[in-house]
Fold this sequence. Notes:
The chain has 371 residues and is an alpha+beta fold. The protein has 3 domains: 6-124, 2-Layer Sandwich (Beta-Lactamase); 130-212; 221-370, 2-Layer Sandwich (Heat Shock Protein 90), CATH 3.30.565.10. It is built from 10 helices and 11 strands. It is elongated and about 110 Å long. 31% of the residues are buried. This is histidine kinase. It catalyses: ATP + protein L-histidine = ADP + protein N-phospho-L-histidine. Keywords: Kinase, Membrane, Transferase. Pfam families: HATPase_c, PAS_4. It comes from Litoreibacter roseus.
Amino acid sequence: MVMLSSSERFATLETFAEQIGQPVFIVDVEGEKQFRFRYLNSAHESATGIIPDDFIGKMPHDVVPERVADTLVVKYETCRARKKPYSYEEELELAGKSRVWQTTLSPVLDAFDDVKTLIGVAIDITRTKQGEFAAQDQLTQMMRTNEELQLLASSTAQDVRGSLQSILGMITFLQDGFLDLGDQKFDQLNLCHAMVTNTIGRMDRISNTAASLQLDTNAKADVDFSHVGLDIAANADPDKRFTVHVADSHIHTDRVAVQMVLRTLFENATKYAKSKITMRVSDEGAEPGRLNFYVSDDGSGLADDLRCDGTPIVPTAAGGMYDLGMSTAAQLITARGGDMVRCSPDFEGGATIGFSLPGQMVSKDAKAVTG
């Protein structure tokens, strides 16, 4: 058996990485939460615009904004501690370009079962994510149209049914005691009675069908809430202007909807927070089969006339307080049977906005992850 030296092993890895055709990076593990970039292949440079020499030999905090580096270290440490491949989705702004990646880290262990190296393979899924967000927006609009059609069909059917019931009553009145003179008028009354009765039945079926028309919004997946929250914070607050606490929970819910609404609320919070923002999720007090989400900041709070707890938020026009996609977010939540509401603030004088989505808790930790 031929034993390869450390340098020979890395040379083999680098040769393999160049042949993959996808962005690949290699990270040396120097200890717990201590990582240093060793290699970036040419596909990585082409996809990200990062010059390898700007990263090689440096630690995450040396080359990217602090909060972004924090999230990278958390992911690398997760893979190191688990000693098995770790896949995740992340949005990163590198070399001035924002991209969404599906990244898989694979640990390389030495003879003592210690992780010495991480190999990362990243696939650009930006277009896929843009498609998901666009589809969510279209679905929300379709659901609003669907609700309007349901209302129109139901109200029209009820109006027509009421008139038909009046006609049926008059026909029944005429039938009662009608003297048949052999000119088939009584048969005609019976025919009219049957036709009106049949039409009323059709109106009832239309009402029932309209009430049952629902678009499928049950596309759920397992979601690492802290991972999603910290990624949102890394992109919206890369320079770590705020202390961010995110609940360490795993949930089963509409992943894309959670990403869209949390990001909107977090970006809104950064406009008003002084130094702290929290994101949390809970099934306590939620309706069965639903989860409650909350985003809080320690800013100056909502206006006095907006302090009513539990009152649904009606987004204002662009330029007002809710000018960062809040209208779309509120519509998305409403389409899923919930409301975006003002809640009792987590921070004295601050603001907390909550919303609900269908979902279940998978696991939760009493501690929050700080980013």
